Amino acid sequence: MNKPIASVARTREILNTYGLRAKKNYGQNFLIDVSVVARAAQASHCEGAVIEIGPGIGSLTEQLAILSRHVRCYEVDARLIPVLESELAEYYNIEIILQDFLECDLEGSVRQMEEEYGTVSVCANLPYYVTTPILFKLFEGPASVEYITVMVQKEVGERFSAAPGTPEYSALSVESQYLYDVKKLFTVPRTAFSPAPKVDSAIIQFHRKPDVTADAQFFELVRASFQQRRKTLYNNLKEYTGSAEAAAALIEKAGLEPGVRAQELAVPAFERLSEAIKEG
Ligand code: SAM
Fold first, then answer.
1. Which CATH architecture has domain 8-208?
2. What is the pLDDT of residues 59-98, one digit of tens each?
3. Separation of 279 CA from ligand 1 center, angstroms?
4. Is the CB of 30 under 6 A from ligand 1?
5. Which residue of 13, 34, 78, 253 could cross-link 4, Cys pair, CB 3.0 to 4.6 Å?
């Protein structure tokens, strides 16, 4: 029996066999601790279909394949495709797509898998350099994806529960707090990776709140409000609406102070601003 891919010995063997070195610019840090990947996969509600972003050499993919009916992976590094195809050849339920996840048709992908496998969840050890855009794409994607389980840098993990008025509070905090119940499942020390990153990580799980809906306009508004953190909400909304009068009217309608900044506002204030836009 082969050792799991998430082990020092097997990772070293794979990298040697294929003459590979981890690419920093793709955020490649491979997990070498099977207990971490197994725990993440087990917590991920992946029993229907699961999307994995950045399978690397397949450490988490392997554990997901054991538990899930179908694993669809998006990997941007072409060098890794033959590795995954060969090392995971014994699993019939893995689909590997060579594509930047940020460019994939997430709606279409989820819809197709839901028809075939029932539920779709997401489980990934995210590349650090694109964590934020990937999470925005997931949050703003299909609401039917009930669980998103991701490994992120520990400090990034703290942003999701950040309170208004703190430096960590951002558009990502607003979207995640509005749409999800967020739980930190466990911390992962830097020694669980090869090469070891400079910081520890955490596995975070987002569970979609059942009765919340959000549309593209809400997301645009939240992002625009934080566009330039040092600017007031009024100045950011002036850019967004294209008019000083419209920005002032929105702020007034939402019952906010004229000089307020987005990072001081809790989620209900963004809901009121969004309502004010809709009322016109
Ligand atoms: N899942 C593997 C593990 O846990 O060992 C690898 C995780 S590594 C932190 C991130 C992976 O994401 C790398 O394989 C990298 O090539 C891939 N990646 C980076 N940017 C990506 C993108 N935009 N779309 C899809 N995959 C990407």
1. 3-Layer(aba) Sandwich (3.40)
2. 999 999 999 999 999 999 999 999 999 999 999 999 999 9
3. 42
4. yes
5. 34
What HEC string does 112-145 produce?
HHHHHHCCEEEEEECCHHHHHHHHHHHHCCCCCC
Break the chain into its structural domains and give their ranges.
8-208, 216-279
For residue 202, give the 3-state DSSP assignment.
strand
Instruction: Check if 75 has its Cβ closer than 6 Å to any atom of ligand 1.
Output: yes
The fold of 216-279 is Helicase, Ruva Protein; domain 3 (1.10.8)
CA distances from 127 to 1, 76, 131 (A): 30, 11, 6
In the chain the first and final C-alpha atoms are separated, in Å, by 65
CA of 132 to the centre of ligand 1 (A): 14
CA distances from 213 to 34, 94, 187, 261 (A): 37, 32, 30, 25
28, 87, 128, 201, best to mutate for ligand 1 pocket (most atoms within 8 Å of CB): 28
Q: Summarize pLDDT for 179-224 with one digit per residue, the tens.
A: 999 999 999 999 999 999 999 999 999 999 998 888 899 999 999 9
Q: Which atom of ligand 1 is nearest to the CA of 5?
A: 5
103 in contact with ligand 1, CB cutoff 6 A: no
